[in-house]
Amino acid sequence: AARSEACVARLAAVGAVRARMEEARGTLHEAAGLSELLVNIDAVLASGDATRAAATLAQMRRCIDAVTDVPQFQDARQRLAAHEDRLQEMVAPQLEEAIRAKDAEATKAARAVLESIGRGKFVLDMYVKGRLAPVLAAWQSFSAGGAQSFCEWLPAFSEALLAAVDEDALWAETAMPGLRSALTPRVVCEAMEAVATQFAARVSKAADTAAAAGRPPVEELVALRGRAHALAEALLPRLAGCSAAAIDEVLRAVDSPYVGALEGYAPAEREQLEAEMR
What we know:
InterPro entries: COG7. Belongs to the COG7 family. It is found in: Golgi apparatus membrane. Its main location: Golgi. This is Conserved oligomeric Golgi complex subunit 7. The protein is an all-alpha fold. The protein has two domains: 2-88; 120-277, Tetracycline Repressor, domain 2. The protein contains eleven helices and no strands. Helix 3 packs across helix 5 (120-140), helix 5 packs parallel to helix 8 (180-212) and helix 6 (150-166) runs antiparallel to helix 8. It starts with a helix and ends with a helix.
């Protein structure tokens, strides 16, 4: 029995050594492959072939995962990230033009490249940036000294925001399937964030203008808050499929400019205003 146990132990030891040798051989193979990839990646990126570059970088990442303990590759992840940055910079103009031209196939191709290197968020960023441009242009079109008051003009801004959500909803679902529930909240929230400071200032000024004209400021604030409610109601059907948290974030973004307008009032007045503005 003792002899059998010793034999089993020797076989186990031999198996362990063999496994370590196989692991070392695999590491050496991956190290050699990584060395070659690091040498060639600049030329691949310079070729302008984004798909090939993405595949090369994905292969580099797999090799790096296998050689993390090899001293000569300690900075490999930093080098990989730098190459991924270069690829993102290379693809960005193509993606921007594809989104602008509503070229679904080109958008999907650029998205596939970026997602393969873990840069899928960049696609959302570029899309939202493109959709915000007309919204912000509409916002800047308001003239404080114009014939329309801010309250009278505000529906035009709401229409621009809704158009940014609606304009290419079907195209976006074709070009970026599965992202619709992420795109709509971001467009609304980032638009409201971009104009938040000016929006709050315009609301406060509208209330002050009403007071100077002998009208109760609360009436102006109630009318303005009504615009927010109308926008929120128009947005809700467009948020179908979004999470409850995303919907709540959108509604708070729409309402946030009016919250600051109440801060200049005493607590009792603010309570009355809040009750009338609901």
